[in-house]
Amino acid sequence: MPDPAAPVxxxxxxxxxxxxxxxxxxxxxxxxxxxxxxxWVAEIADDLADTAAFTEAYGVPLAASANCVVVAxxxxxxxxxxxxxxxxxxxxxxxxxxxxxxxxxxxxxAPQDVAVxxxxxxxxxxxxxxxxxxxxxxxxxxxxxxxxxxxxxxxxGSKLAVPGAVLAALPAAQVLEGLGQPLPLEAPPPxxxxxxxxxxxxxxxxxxxxPAEGSDDDRRYHEDRPPHWGSD
Length: 232
Hints:
The protein has seven helices and eleven strands. It has helices at about 25-30, 50-60, 95-100, 110-120, 140-145, 165-170, 215-225; strands at about 15, 40-45, 65-75, 80-85, 90, 105-110, 135-140, 150, 160, 175, 180. The longest helix is centred in the last third of the chain and has 9 residues, at about 215-225.
């Protein structure tokens, strides 16, 4: 029987996450009992886990999705891992706000193998729910204010729907204003030079093109021919 409290998001059928542990990564399932509110899960195709493909396939608005990225912050000889959660319509200000907040000399996205091994989750499905206790979880204020957002489940085969307030209340969560920055506008394609297509029967010279110069032999032939050639 459908959960009457479940969100209506796209074409997905949402169930209480605690009732579908097989759809969750083990760390995520283990973290559910301590969350401050409800969490729902929906099964998806593994190859549609990436945000762009997911939103197109299931009709979930991009603004209703949030991305979780793992950041490696370095200072001296130490590296700290942290998670950033921002709306999918933005990108995390990793080398600005994140770096300063973590007191790091340099911050960048963690390598895939490091993020997977450290989180115990699948790449493309990493979520702030169930991350190691030592990892700071930086949550953009827009995510914290959202009624509900769609995030990863620790696997590529499902998604979670979680109230923003529940994410803001995670044990390691720190809500930051301006963590998510607007995505850069795509540059317009370069202007193409005006070109008139050649006529179907114009196989020799295209419109507006200059005929190719003849070869030296051709020029010599025309120059050496008798003056009266071709006259009546």
